[in-house]
Amino acid sequence: MSSSSAAAVPGGTPADALRRNRILSSKLYFDVPGSKAPVVYSTAYDIAFLGIEKMHPFDSSKWGRICRFLTKEGHLEKNRVVEPLEASQEDLLVVHTEAYLNSLRSSFRVAAIVEVPPLTLIPNWLLQQRLLYPFRKQVGGSILSAKLALERGWAINVGGGFHHCSAEEGGGFCAYGDISLCIQFAFVRLNISRVMIIDLDAHQGNGYEKDFANDGRVYILDMYNAGIYPFDYAAKRYIDQKIELVSGTETDDYLDQLDKALKVAQTRFQPQLIIYNAGTDILDGDPLGNLKISPEGVVIRDEKVFKFAKDQNIPLVMMTSGGYMKSSARVIADSITNLSQKDLIQLGSQPG
């Protein structure tokens, strides 16, 4: 990919200057005391209203359940979790167009994005409060996680990873482009210019692919089931390293393909930050992923990615992304516990 276009270079156009000013005046980056772990979560992440959230297969209380597993089992103290701020309209305009954000004032539009048709009948103010506010909190979490990762070597946003949303279009349960926002903030506030996205959700990450089309600062490794949504052939052109899986791919084959992909990525690009989109919709039985990866396979997958980053001393941000079974939260909590046990992350109190 070339970065020859003016838009790909900071400070090139009035639009770039406006974006930069928005990023510099944002409150989403704040100092987090060393007594906290770089694990970002808010109870506001969880979506619940009148049971309507159950009309989509996504487990909208997944994020809270992950944290409850970790705290109840003694792996993470509740008071060590970092609470993010909500992304404001000005923050969202760093990537999104005003026209797109205005479109979210239509309940019909929101219902189409999250694939729950009855939401069309819900007053928009209620959708803003019960659905879009939790999403905006998760966006704030993804953005802050990059700062934490640069400071601590790693960070986990127990949420986020809305990889189907681009600057001008939402879809697939993704209303805001937190990955694109996280990276744009990192370019300006963390003074970095090379980011690698490792997207191992079962679906193609077409949102940020469109946002970073032909931007040489972002290297995209996307490993997904080519036989399911979103079938975005235009966005595929912007994937640097495309690993297309077939429905029914099993654990050993999956992990083998991942090993090969990471080896190739290591020789092609030297990032200053890795964004890891760790969807658990690859699990066997997931109604939308159509892959057959075991829970142990997901744990090993995450371990491989964290080891890849740690071996090269590259800060890594993990987002939990898709995963449409109740068992997903348990698998993610087990994976985070395993990362801690393997000393790839430190969940316990810092010494001294």
UniProtKB/TrEMBL annotation:
A Pfam family cross-referenced in the UniProt record is: Hist_deacetyl
Name all Histone deacetylase domain ranges.
Answer: 56-337
Gene3D superfamilies found in the cross-reference section: Histone deacetylase domain
Task: List the catalytic activities from the record.
Answer: N(6)-acetyl-L-lysyl-[histone] + H2O = L-lysyl-[histone] + acetate
Reported function = Responsible for the deacetylation of lysine residues on the N-terminal part of the core histones (H2A, H2B, H3 and H4). Histone deacetylation gives a tag for epigenetic repression and plays an important role in transcriptional regulation, cell cycle progression and developmental events. Histone deacetylases act via the formation of large multiprotein complexes.
Question: Organism, per UniProt?
Answer: Hordeum vulgare subsp. vulgare
Q: Write the record's keywords in alphabetical order, separated by commas.
A: Chromatin regulator, Hydrolase, Nucleus, Repressor, Transcription, Transcription regulation
Instruction: Report the main location listed first in the record.
Output: nucleus
What protein is this chain from?
histone deacetylase
Q: Where in the cell is it found?
A: Nucleus
Q: What GO MF annotations does this protein's record show?
A: histone deacetylase activity; histone deacetylase activity, hydrolytic mechanism
Which positions carry the signal peptide feature in this UniProt record? none
Would you tell me the Gene Ontology cellular component terms?
histone deacetylase complex
Provide the E.C. number(s) assigned to this enzyme. Answer: 3.5.1.98
A GO biological process of this protein is: epigenetic regulation of gene expression
Q: Which class of enzymes does this protein belong to? A: hydrolase
The domain of life for this entry's organism is Eukaryota
Cofactor(s) needed: Zn(2+)
